[in-house]
Amino acid sequence: MASSSSLNLSQATLSRSAAQQHHRGSNRPASLTTSSLPTFPGLKSSSRAASTRRRSVRASASTSRRSVRASAAVETLETTATELIDKSVNTIRFLAIDAVEKANSGHPGLPMGCAPMGHVLYDEIMRYNPKNPYWFNRDRFVLSAGHGCMLQYALLHLAGYDSVQEEDLKQFRQWGSKTPGHPENFETPGVEVTTGPLGQGIANAVGLALAEKHLAARFNKPDSEIVDHYTYAILGDGCQMEGISNEACSIAGHWGLGKLIAFYDDNHISIDGDTEIAFTESVDTRFEGLGWHVIWVKNGNTGYDEIRAAIKEAKAVKDKPTLIKVTTTIGYGSPNKANSYSVHGSALGAKEVDATRQNLGWPYEPFHVPEDVKKHWSRHVPAGAALEAEWNAKFAEYEKKYSEEAAELKSIISGELPAGWEKALPTYTPESPADATRNLSQQCLNALAKVIPGFLGGSADLASSNMTLLKMFGDFQKSTPEERNLRFGVREHGMGAICNGIALHSPGLIPYCATFFVFTDYMRAAMRISALSEAGVIYVMTHDSIGLGEDGPTHQPIEHLASFRAMPNILMFRPADGNETAGAYKVAVLNPKRPSVLALSRQKLPQLPGTSIEGVEKGGYIVSDNSSGNKPDVILIGTGSELEIAAKAAEELRKEGKSVRLVSFVSWELFDEQSDAYKESVLPAAVSARVSIEAGSTFGWEKIVGSKGKAIGIDRFGASAPAGKIYKEYGITAEAVVAAAKALC
């Protein structure tokens, strides 16, 4: 019975997820054929270096086939098996070539060069169930160089994933297809994370590996290793150049993520040409300095045994992540475009496709998978089902012995929240002491961590300022991975992307991360990927306005609220007090497929009468109103710290006989999603006298106040001075609100 229950857990996860889908080395590998080196700035085709390189490539090409055949005698596989692997690898190459050619769009070079890596991983190493892409204990794969996505689509197709059929390959990069131009986890089951912007994927992979290490430390027992999977990634030269990859790989080395194995596609070609024009560092040395184990596979084109041996060595290293530098030829097999930038991001063209088919001895029509290759790969469907069934039986035994831990792990796997979890959130009255919303946020964070097993997070070296420490837990470190406080260091961009990986590891993992609101500029790309990939990260952003005072304009966000309100599928909150802060956290937890941003104050704010958790759930709501018949003389609208200012202005206007409605507009997105009737009840169309106040850009506020209303805000950079002085000089005052209201009504 327990075994059945465990199986149902995996099936439920599958059903729910399906329902929710809507360094340079001097030795280069031998090229298979003659390759022309293109002309590009910094290395002219007529240059001595270019001529020497072409001679070298041609010379290596003439011996390539002989060297491959000679090496067959020392291969561990039988000759026939090796030939089948060659055939399988070429199948991967040509599925990519054909799909890109049909779409006349895409990146064939990486799949052609990385096919051996992909084959060894998906056919020999990784554990997965093609019929349940969401099986919890599967190995994870991340294609950080997302432009080469046809590599992954071809592998998913061969392995038997329902998400990538032959027709899907033929619809590569077309409207409504499951094979978009870069991997998207929400479109293609089997794709773990959304990649494309270079470096994001390897940082996501760090998050996935962190999640595995954390959960293994919490739930594994001496007699039961219930959490045991690896994270594999392929990244390219471009990923290596991006700063985010260094941020993420630095902290991965510090954390000792031994089950993270990254393959570096060392092909020395970028869009502008040979990487020697801009990228000559020793990647090997850098990664060793970052605390990684480094292995070099010198022949990534045909060295299957080298790749296997490297993976075996990597798995033997338990206390460090591993970088396997695999030197490859981009566009391997193309007679005229291999080892050149022209094969990076363009279709080969019909003539070159034919030449490549002839060169690699591939007589088949486009998209054809030879029967022996198909038969070889077909074993993964029953084998994957058996792996999952074996794990389910193991979990059933685990559940009998460790029922409490099993229940927690189940909730993390399923994403099911504990009953009554929201009751843990603190509530406040007007008599409660004034406090900064960053402090009130810490109260909420600690309350949630007590009742939600998958709640964890941290700050980019600002925990004591962002107020994000979970007081009942220690720090997640190499020796204490069971703890829940994550110390990211000053790595904002890496932090955001790592949290995306955590969130996308399991539905019940809810990561939060923090810095000053203005420093979202350092991590915006990761936050955008959060929204796109439906990763429910909670972004705790403090010091949200000129209210931080003396630190000045470098630290005072102005345009940031508007910029996040413009981003799809993200919830932007600016709570005014304790109840609204608690409400924002409630909504954030309830939206696992939408990231949330909480903009929080440094300065103390009063607990205002009329605010509520329930109001926040509506986005905008009435805090106070002395009008009747839904026809106030004027509507005052505030957010965050300026709701208090609007409340003071409302009080003054009421003393003068005006009927005033005070509205808190904590989340534009949530308000937009309410019914027309509700929106009319808060902001009646007949009332055009509307004044908004917010210590940020007025951009976008016309949508709320209308063409006849007035938006009070800041459309210039801030200043270094005490907060009160800045507010006064910039006109963010109750007096300014009163004057604007009187001018309108």
TrEMBL record:
Spell out the reaction equation it catalyses: D-sedoheptulose 7-phosphate + D-glyceraldehyde 3-phosphate = aldehydo-D-ribose 5-phosphate + D-xylulose 5-phosphate
Bilayer-crossing residues are none
> What EC number(s) is this enzyme filed under?
2.2.1.1
Ranges for region Disordered? 1-73
User: Keyword set for this entry?
Assistant: Magnesium, Metal-binding, Thiamine pyrophosphate, Transferase
Domain Transketolase-like pyrimidine-binding: residue ranges: 435-607
Q: Could you state one GO biological process linked to this protein?
A: pentose-phosphate shunt
The Low complexity compositionally biased stretches are 58-73
**Which residues does the annotation say bind thiamine diphosphate?**
147, 196-198, 238, 267, 344, 519
Amino-acid positions noted as binding substrate in the UniProt annotation, renumbered to this chain: 107, 344, 438, 465, 543, 551, 555, 602
Q: Which cofactor does it need?
A: Mg(2+); thiamine diphosphate; Co(2+)
* A GO molecular-function annotation: metal ion binding
State the free-text cofactor note.
Binds 1 Mg(2+) ion per subunit. Can also utilize other divalent metal cations, such as Ca(2+), Mn(2+) and Co(2+). Binds 1 thiamine pyrophosphate per subunit. During the reaction, the substrate forms a covalent intermediate with the cofactor.
In this protein, the active site sits at: 492
The UniProt annotation places Mg(2+) binding at: 237, 267, 269
- Please list the coiled coil stretches: none
The cellular component terms of Gene Ontology attached to this UniProt record, alphabetical and capped at eight, are: chloroplast; cytosol
Quaternary structure note: Homodimer.
Q: Which PANTHER family match?
A: TRANSKETOLASE, TRANSKETOLASE 1-RELATED
Question: What family, per the record?
Answer: Belongs to the transketolase family.
Name the chain's protein: transketolase
User: Which organism encodes this protein?
Assistant: Actinidia chinensis var. chinensis (Chinese soft-hair kiwi)
Q: What is the lineage of its organism?
A: Eukaryota, Viridiplantae, Streptophyta, Embryophyta, Tracheophyta
